[in-house]
Amino acid sequence: MRRTREEAQHTRLLIMQKGLEAFAEQGVSSCSLTEIARSVGCTRGAIYWHFKHKWDLFEAICEHYSRPLKSLSEACLSDDEHDPLGKLRLLLVQMLISIEQDQGFCLVMIMFMRESSGLALGGAPEPVSSFIREQHDRRLVMLKNAIQRGQLPASLDLEFASSFIKAVMDGFITSWLQRSESFSLSGNAEILVGTLIANLQSLKGFPNNTDHDVEYL
Question: Which of 6, 61, 162, 190 is the most buried (most CB within 10 A)?
């Protein structure tokens, strides 16, 4: 029985690996489970035994490859965390490092950006839109925790701040994916994220920064 479970787990991981490669290259909507089954060397039935449909596989892939960042993410969301902004900084830095150093995580970002780019053309698939909303809501909680700890201005526009974080991070990542030879994402992660955080902290209304306007990136 143990061997059967181990084999099933191995097959599940292999399906996710091959599914990720296919999704990153073709997009979830354009890729068929038949193609994935062929690359794995199994039947469609074997895939359906592990996953309900393509988007179930998509969500499992996102969860699996983001697991190493989960502890930092959960710390940012905790009411008991004494340094939520510091944990958010570490989370964003580690994300940039992982994209450059972890091929699987990099493919996840490519896959996600490929799918979410449909927003400008009438909407991304619902599972992607749902994931985007969930991440936005999580950032709102992180920012609220930082405000409660006095790390960000009480006057901070949370909706804007969450969108600002996403826009800046997406810009860094997209630029690197397009021209990875031009700069090191991991090597510049600290200064990139530090600049982002500094912009949030420098908003008008933050202590010691009330007498001048803010210059954004």
Answer: 61
